[in-house]
Amino acid sequence: MKALLIRDLRLALRAGGGFGLGLAFFLLVAVLVPLGVGPEGGMLGRIAPGILWVGALLACLLSLDRIFALDYEDGSLDLLVVAPIPLEAVVAVKALAHWLVTGLPLTLVAPVLGILLNLPAGGYGWLVMSLALGTPALSVIGAFGAALVVGVKRGGLLLSLLVLPLYVPTLIFGAEAVKRGAAGLEAGGALALMASVTAAAVAVLPFAAAAALRVNLR
Amino acid sequence: MEMKVDNLAVARGGVTVLEGIGFRLAPGRALILRGPNGVGKTTLLRTLAGLQPAVAGEVSVPPESLTYAAHADGLKSMLTVRENLDFWAAIHGTALVGAALRAMDIEALAGRRAGDLSAGQKRRLGLARLAVSGRAIWLMDEPTVSLDTASVAAFVGMVRGHLATGGSVLVATHIDLGLAEAEVLDLAPFRALASVPRGGFDEGFG
Lengths: 218, 206
Fold this sequence. Notes:
The structure holds two protein chains of two kinds.
Chain A: H1 2-13, H2 21-37, H3 41-62, H4 66-73, H5 76-82, H6 87-116, H7 123-148, H8 156-182, H9 188-216
Chain B: E1 3-12, E2 15-25, E3 30-34, H1 41-48, E4 56-60, E5 66-69, H2 81-92, H3 97-103, H4 119-133, E6 137-141, H5 149-164, E7 168-172, E8 183-186
Parallel strand pairs in B: 3-7, 3-8, 5-6, 6-7
Antiparallel strand pairs in B: 1-2, 1-4
Helix pairs in contact in B: 2-4, 3-4, 4-5
């Protein structure tokens, strides 16, 4: 399993692997939104939590179809099914690898982009914490969606439509936690609800994704 | 490590293509599957590998004894030849990379990216993966596609070595491998008579 994680990270980091795609997208959103909205600081600060969370979510979405599609195309997914590791573990490891190359970097750069968006000072801690707890759910839910569409050519559109509704709870609670934190209110409740969504997704979805893969590989 | 297949029926796209297949594959033996295009050789191999369910019949193999080489080699073009094999060795918990590189004569290519190899070299790397898996029963689907005669000979040599150590192989192929000791199973007589789609659109939920 460690070998699979190392292979996926290595593939993502080498040329053409798609590392940095989500990060660059997130950066573009955070740079362009202030230009579009205008220099009115108060307004920008109010919408910053929502913009940052939507940006992170869409950045995650960009690279989802790569989780299984590449392995499906070159035949290594078949070989992984025959290999002596459970398919559920394959899904979990691939979701983890996806989080390490998208969710984690997004979490780390988010405070810097928060400055661009004039995020109030109280929001930074909550922003990092909510992204750190919320983006794993985005990767696991995305892996489930990718498993559902694995045999479909150009399944990216279908994948987005399947996955976006499942992302909504994480988005609402995550942005709410940052908003409340930025306004100086108690934000722990929203954060706890979001963390529970993540915990449930991590616990259940690898099994669902493995079942979907088995059906799709027939 | 004997593989037993009894009265097996397999389906492709919901249509039963082969039925009534039965054979034994004992350790040290090779079995060659023959039959015209579309008869269901790949479908049979995928069913035996556990990638799709059988329509009827029984396949009995010891658990975790199979490995499968499909039309696609499962190579990552951005990894080197050695990294590709190292990955599969780590997954299967073996240390057979050096021997596999030697067996398929790709030692000189070990540091090259798999994406830079020729079709025949990629195929040799894909076949070397079989040896790296350390599994006893090798299922192979047209293993000799894009191999020249020297590489076919190297491949047959690797298969003989595997048979000599008590392994067994099941090969779907159209060409004569020069594997004189192998038994041949012609699939044409097992073709399913009634080619009626089964299950309809809800087959995924069956």
